[in-house]
Amino acid sequence: xxxxxxxxxxxxxxxxxxxxxxxxxxxxxxxxxxxxxxxxxxxxxxxxxxxxxxxxxxxxxxxxxxxxxxxxxxxxxxxxxxxxxxxxxxxxxxxxxxxxxxxxxxxxxxxxxxxxxxxxxxxxxxxxxxxxxxxxxxxxxxxxxxxxxxxxxxxxxxxxxxxxxxxxxxxxxxxxxxxxxxxxxxxxxxxxxxxxxxxxxxxxxxxxxxxxxxxxxxxxxxxxxxxxxxxxxxxxxxxxxxxxxxxxxxxxxxxxxxxxxxxxxxxxxxxxxxxxxxxxxxxxxxxxxxxxxxxxxxxxxxxxxxxxxxxxxxxxxxxxxxxxxxxxxxxxxxxxxxxxxxxxxxx
Amino acid sequence: xxxxxxxxxxxxxxxxxxxxxxxxxxxxxxxxxxxxxxxxxxxxxxxxxxxxxxxxxxxxxxxxxxxxxxxxxxxxxxxxxxxxxxxxxxxxxxxxxxxxxxxxxxxxxxxxxxxxxxxxxxxxxxxxxxxxxxxxxxxxxxxxxxxxxxxxxxxxxxxxxxxxxxxxxxxxxxxxxxxxxxxxxxxxxxxxxxxxxxxxxxxxxxxxxxxxxxxxxxxxxxxxxxxxxxxxxxxxxxxxxxxxxxxxxxxxxxxxxxxxxxxxxxxxxxxxxxxxxxxxxxxxxxxxxxxxxxxxxxxxxxxxxxxxxxxxxxxxxxxxxxxxxxxxxxxxxxxxxxxxxxxxxxx
Lengths: 347, 347
What we know:
- By secondary structure, chain A is an alpha/beta fold.
- Chain A is built from ten helices and 16 strands.
- In chain A, helix 6 (229-235) links the parallel strand 11 (220-224) and strand 12 (239-247).
- The two termini of chain A are 14 Å apart.
């Protein structure tokens, strides 16, 4: 079944994952299309963004945002069109950025959405990527916490992904030596040849840590952390004095059920942070930097328009493919910003 | 043997500690008193500062400063008087702050010392404490990284010690609720009754973690980290969103030879830093904030003069007692800023 005007298809959280999510954790349902109240909009989802943070929302554990309730629609940013408007600032057909979730139709108060206008309408889905939350995350974490200086070495993982690609390209614009980490030769080739990173290393290589050390002969000044796990372990001994670690995600850790037995490396990490005078700082883009969105847009829009910052999209057709695509995202199977095309531009 | 004008007593690093330092790691030697070259000063040590960072210098491992060589004089900040001057800006009898080390006499270039003048000459040893490196560490770590705001809760360990006492008192001046941690009832009484902390908890209490949680009903906004170990473990679950952790020392970890077996809590710590958007930052006062020394002096001198910031000194007589006192410092046996009186004010 495709998107149509008679039913609302939605994907709900059927059960909480025990470690890695599986298809049974999701359920496709259909229901009525809701009706907007005064001041509300009825929005039809065109593009749905899939992002690693959603894994955290599937757990029933305290985090920076409340969990998705069982049997509730999965959350997610969407680019949508106005189907019906009961607010004077919006008309049917307008494009908006909203938090529509994994479904065809959503209601929103007019104050909760952002109207998309101007150049971005040539590529509306970019509002979910390079000009949206991932690009904003990359830009603010790099600029405010990473504080790149010309000649410094930056490392970022998931380098062909939505955040990593922007981090590296902006760091290049700031004069850094940029080393990416990605999964597989094809992604690495793209990262160096298309995105212009100096080096890209395949984290699947058995001698990955050795290759990373070779690629950073002067050590690492900025490690933009979005994966955790083995990449972080390889980065740790290479960190320079006064290194900065903006921390926006730990995708490698999201499916961990229990801490692994072995040596307790917590004192190792705090000791390195002390001796090397490192700044490590977690951030959540909307909570920490929502007030600086305009600054991001003013910097990024020209770079994108001039081709200085590029973004590859991994566009998957049809809402019902979202669960499988999301599971693949956590395994690094996507290549570029993962977006689901839920509906046609016109219907 | 007391300090005299015929020999230079010095305490050298005889061997490197294997875990906790022992007396055999030190050796008292005597030698000739050195002669200053042009531009140099001969300085006689009056007060020697003993500080936890010295434990790191005893290891032959890379850290923020090079290790003390075997058979070399132990390093340390000193308040000294000029015995002989071959520089026009200094005269015999002048008081200076220098890095004289654990010995009676030291040479220094005039540019390496700071002349002590004005009110501080009423208490010259304070240049090693509240108005010296520990006070500077407390002030900059708290103000620049901790960024205290009125109504927030701050926790600091070693609360009766040289750094912790200043951190807590300045945080009180900034309107924070201040919870100290110290070893034993006597120290805790001093911390609340004399220093004016809101609460002080004995880390030796079997239910320490529970008491800390009770003392912080609104969680912890700033944890000024100078000890590590069990205190850090108890603090971790209490950290609030957007908490700051200035990290200037890890005294509980300094004698650790190997990481302990158990669960690897490194991903636990990074996960908390991410989810709670925490800033954790190591710093070494001279390297990171040397250029802001004047700002510290201008804030702290009036507070000390007005009795708003107090400092207890633990004054130990005689250079030969320095090794035993230093070993005690690492075990929390001192009560206040540990200073060795090496020589008399007049000789």
